[in-house]
Design goal:
Helix content is about 40%, strand content about 10%. It has five helices and seven strands. A hairpin with a 2-residue loop joins β5 and β6. The longest helix has 26 residues.
Length: about 200
């Protein structure tokens, strides 16, 4: 694969690393097939946040060529969005556009395995999630993004005033999302900091 004008710069190195990761994953899949394990294996693959720095100028120019409507809020959403794919034995191809979070992986696997889920922070990916949060406290809904104490319209990049721009019922929902996110992140951090898996 050639990287043209991006070769030798940070963005080009990132594209090269992604290309190699794809190649290595292909080798892994082929080995599963050769050993007769592929058909009975659940495979989940998902990305991670901030593979590239958010303010890499070459990457921004590349994205703006593909999407001329790219704005600051769209940029933040772009860094929050992750592709997630699952191969599940016996399940035909489907596409879900649900909001999901990484904490939804465990309850999804439990549901697929028929195991009762007595405690999870997340919910099954097959259920509707109204919002998703990131470890830095940002929140995404189907049309809004919460960043640094303010809500923004993802499409227009306009800041939303909760007191004047939304109905009371939606305002209460958005405030609840912030409250739930703080609780969720506090629990998650407590598990990590205090090594509660031990």
């Amino acid at each position: 694969m050639t990287f043209g004008e991006y070769k030798g710069i940070s963005f080009g190195n990132y594209l090269e690393a992604v290309n190699y990761a794809d190649y290595a994953f292909g080798l892994f899949i082929n080995e599963l097939k050769e050993k007769g394990l592929y058909e009975d294996t659940v495979i989940i693959i998902f990305g991670d946040h901030y593979g590239m720095g958010m303010h890499d100028w070459d990457m921004e120019l590349f994205i703006k060529e593909v999407n001329p409507e790219y704005n600051q809020t769209a940029k933040r959403v772009n860094y929050a969005n992750l592709l997630c794919g699952m191969k599940i034995p016996g399940v035909k191809q489907r596409k879900y556009n649900n909001l999901v979070s990484k904490i939804d992986i465990k309850p999804t696997l439990l549901e697929l395995s028929g195991i009762e889920d007595n405690f999870s922070l997340g919910i099954s990916m097959f259920k509707n999630r109204e919002y998703a949060c990131i470890s830095n406290g940002d929140i995404i809904t189907d049309g809004l993004y919460y960043y640094n104490g303010s809500w923004y319209n993802i499409k227009t990049d306009e800041e939303i005033n909760l007191d004047t721009d939304v109905e009371e019922e939606k305002r209460q929902k958005l405030l609840k999302y912030i409250e739930n996110t703080e609780l969720e992140l506090n629990i998650s951090r407590s598990i990590l900091i205090n090594n509660l898996f031990k």
